Amino acid sequence: MSVLERPAPAEELTLLELVDRVLTKGVTLTGDITLAVADVDLVYVGLRVLLASVPTLDRLRDEGGA
Amino acid sequence: MIHLYGFTHKGAPVPPVRGLDEQPLLAVEVGGVAAVVSRHAALDRAPTRAAAIRHGEVVEALRAEDAVLPVRFGERFATTDGLVAATSRLAPAIVDRLQQLRGCVELGVRVTGADLSLAAAADGTSYLRERAAALARRDELFDRLHRRLERLACASVVSPGDSFVASYLVRADAQAAFTTCVSEFGADNPQLTVVCTGPWAPYSFATFEAAV
């Protein structure tokens, strides 16, 4: 699915930011946590793509409404 | 198996949401602290993004009830005794930290798109000089934003990197002023993508060393 087909980029960005915090921040009691999350690489790729796409989405929205 | 989401004050309400695998939340009290957990017959060794999101949703539900100290996804214990042993040593520090964080939220700010493109340089030295100047302009822009936001926050963490990625601990009553400041910076710099997210539980400030 391309970035422009995403139904709700703001909601997706919120989830990506949440996952970033959950996986990399917060209290640790037992030392470094090395639990592997199966699709974590996709999370970070998705975050970069989405951030890069925000101005494009805004521009397209403006052009569509003009 | 016990999955740990976060710490709250002893006696704080446990929200009526479900944890991983739709299991109910429980509070295990240790000293003045409540460790909010769910119990499981087994847990995935390689959990998915959906599980991480559920962990985050539980933490946000805890934040809605009272001050919360989020725990990083992946803290698991075989028995309640193991959880109690790991928590009891830190319980007094956790109580203090919860008190400091009460009434505060975390807001995230990301800025991308700072233009580092350079005109064709006459030689290598000119290129390096122009690139250094472009980097300095970018850093000055990021510094200007950070200085403005820092004044509205109790604490901040700026991540190293080419983009501006920072988290701010903000009192709830300063949240509107903070987001307005971010919006104004974005309006003044339309070449940049400026994103503010939150409010979040204070993940970036859930340490015992950071000062509020």
Overall pLDDT metric of chain A: 61
Shape of chain B: elongated
Sheet with most strands of chain A: none
Order of helices and strands of chain B: EEEHEEHHEHEEHE
Radius of gyration of chain B: 21 Å
Alpha plus pi helix count of chain B:
5
Classification by helices and strands of chain B? alpha+beta
Superfamily (CATH H level) name of the largest domain in chain B: Ribosomal protein S10
CATH class of the largest domain in chain B: Alpha Beta
Radius of gyration of chain A: 16 Å
Helix content of chain B: 25-40%
What is the share of helical residues of chain A? 55-70%
Q: Describe it for me?
A:
The complex is a heterodimer of chains A (66) and B (212). With 66 residues, chain A is an all-alpha fold. Chain A has one domain. Chain A has helices at 9-24, 40-65. In chain A, helix 1 (9-24) runs antiparallel to helix 2. Chain A starts with 8 loop residues before the first helix and ends with a helix. Chain B has helices at 49-65, 80-88, 91-101, 124-150, 175-188, and strands at residues 2-9, 26-30, 33-39, 69-70, 76-77, 104-112, 155-159, 164-171, 193-200. In chain B, a hairpin with a 2-residue loop joins strand 2 (26-30) and strand 3 (33-39). The model of chain B has no long low-confidence stretch (mean pLDDT 89). Helix content of chain B is 37%, strand content 25%. In chain B, the strands form two sheets. In chain B, strands 1, 2, 3, 4 and 5 form a five-stranded antiparallel sheet that branches. Chain B is of the alpha+beta class and 212 residues long. The radius of gyration of chain B is 21 Å and the shape is elongated. Chain B folds into two domains: 2-101; 104-205, Ribosomal protein S10 (Alpha-Beta Plaits). Classes of the chains: A mainly alpha (66), B alpha+beta (212).
